[in-house]
Design a protein that fits this description.
Strand content: 15-25%
Helix content: 25-40%
Bound molecules: pyridoxal-5'-phosphate, lysine
Number of strands: 18
CATH superfamily of the largest domain: Alanine racemase
Structural class: alpha/beta
Distance between the termini: 55 Å
Number of helices: 12
Order of helices and strands: EHEHEHEHEHEHEHEHEHEHEEHEEEEEEH
CATH class of the largest domain: Alpha Beta
């Protein structure tokens, strides 16, 4: 029998009738909990955002590459991008065919590029030297090129991947050199791609970048696909009523551009997008137990077991994640107060929320850290020799299934080789 729990705050109907306090007890904390229904819905939202028929959504697996998660994405008819041989490997294990995988590497070694070529996936290069490397490895082959359209966007300068200050993409002024290399190695340019950065909440930069990319596309009459990139944002500040991205409006604007381009180009190419966050962020909540409540210099600190080894976004980008409080005990309080929620890592920057007004929190409460499905587990680490957490999925059929085991102490020694003579 589910013990009744107090949803001390309630901004999200996420747990599908399951009790987060019971989930935390059964699977222990910290715990990534995924909601399959929301994941499927986000996939469908994007698939249906334009009327243009040859439109493919490549889920960007760097946001979340859990095997079961990818299986759901595959079953929704999406394809995927990949950033490394490791992502290709897991995507193949999740059932994606080679032609459904687009390898968009950056500063890739010859060995890694060979891995992608041997795997039969589409490959994009984003510098002249990488194009030359591809030509040497696969003369006569098919390749795609990532351009820098000159317009970037993102929630933090660290995640803006186009424009003047980035290492990504090739500037269009190098098109003559590109042509020389294509000719030298008898390569066919089958696609061009871009990605302007992660998390935009309005479409201006994205549509401007598409206009720039389409101008580049017109210079290559034999393209099979044009990939417009990802970056679609989600509202992390839901309790402040932050508006979601207007996907319909953005879809309509893109649609118009795609149809216009098709008329001018003279045939339909496949248009792709490669969103990660939009699909994965809102379908996960991290459950974390509060192990300590204390005052330091009149500041109240709530100490939980979700350190930045579990969720790196706050320390890395000062990112905001909503926090809910669930309580299994009888403790009652109507009070709210500003608190600083911290993890258990040995750094003062290990802060999940600074001076956040939350309901009074007690030791033993369970925190729900919202919108954690994108760049959550994929950026988790073993810092301080902490174990990376378990992941469970709330299935649409009501089941709760474990989709990744919590690491064990032995995992920490797995790849270490002790000295023999000491
Ligand atoms: C090349 C590339 N494609 C797609 C993405 C996905 O971005 P987002 O999760 O913001 O949609 C990224 C990450 O910024 C990326 O670097
Ligand atoms: N990791 C970043 C997004 C970067 C996406 C990869 N290019 C974040 O959490 O917001």
């Amino acid at each position: 029998m589910n013990k009744v729990y107090t949803k001390v705050t309630d901004s999200l109907d996420f747990f599908e009738g399951h009790n987060p306090v019971e989930l935390a007890k059964e699977y222990q904390t910290p715990l990534y909990v995924y909601n399959e229904r929301i994941l499927r819905q986000r996939c469908r939202d994007l698939k249906n955002m334009v009327t243009y028929p040859k439109f493919v959504v490549d889920y960007s697996a760097k946001a979340n590459s859990n095997l079961a998660f990818l299986q759901v994405v595959k079953s929704e008819g999406l394809e995927v991008d990949a950033m490394s041989p490791g992502e290709i490997y897991v995507e193949r294990a999740a059932g994606f065919a080679p032609e459904e995988i687009f390898y968009i590497g950056n500063n890739v070694s010859a060995e890694e590029m060979q891995y992608a070529i041997d795997a039969g996936v589409r490959v994009s290069v984003d510098s002249l030297s990488q194009l030359e490397q591809f030509g040497q490895l696969a003369p006569g082959g098919e390749v795609a090129i990532r351009f820098n359209p000159g317009v970037g966007a993102g929630h933090h300068e660290k995640v803006i991947t186009a424009g003047k200050k980035t290492k990504f993409g090739i500037e269009p002024k190098y098109i003559p050199q590109i042509r020389e290399l294509l000719e030298k190695y008898h390569l066919k340019l089958v696609g061009i791609n871009q990605h302007i950065g992660s998390l935009f909440m309005t479409g201006e930069a994205f549509t401007a970048s598409i206009a720039a990319l389409l101008e580049i596309a017109k210079q290559f009459p034999e393209l099979e696909f044009i990939d417009m990139g990802g970056g679609f944002g989600i509202p992390y500040k839901k309790e402040e009523d932050q508006a979601p991205l207007d996907l319909k409006g953005l879809g309509a604007a893109i649609d118009e551009a795609l149809w216009k381009f098709t008329r001018e180009y003279g045939r339909e190419v496949t248009f792709r997008i490669e969103p990660g966050r939009y699909i994965s962020a809102e379908c996960s909540v991290i459950l974390s137990e509060v192990h300590s409540v204390k005052h330091n210099n009149d500041k109240k600190f709530v100490g939980c077991d979700c350190g930045f080894n579990v969720l790196q976004r706050p320390i890395m980008y000062d990112s905001y994640h909503g926090i809910e409080v669930y309580r299994g005990s009888e403790v009652k309080s109507e009070k709210t107060e500003p608190v600083t929620v911290v993890g258990n890592i040995c750094e003062s920057g290990d802060i999940l929320a600074k001076d956040r007004v939350l309901p009074e929190i007690f030791k033993g409460d369970i925190l729900g850290i919202l919108d954690a499905g994108a760049y959550g587990f994929t950026m988790a680490s073993n810092y301080n020799n902490r174990l990376r957490p378990a992941e469970v999925m709330l299935r649409e059929n009501g089941e709760v299934v474990l989709i990744r085991e919590r690491e064990e102490l032995e995992d920490l020694l797995r790849h270490m080789i002790p000295l023999k003579n000491i």
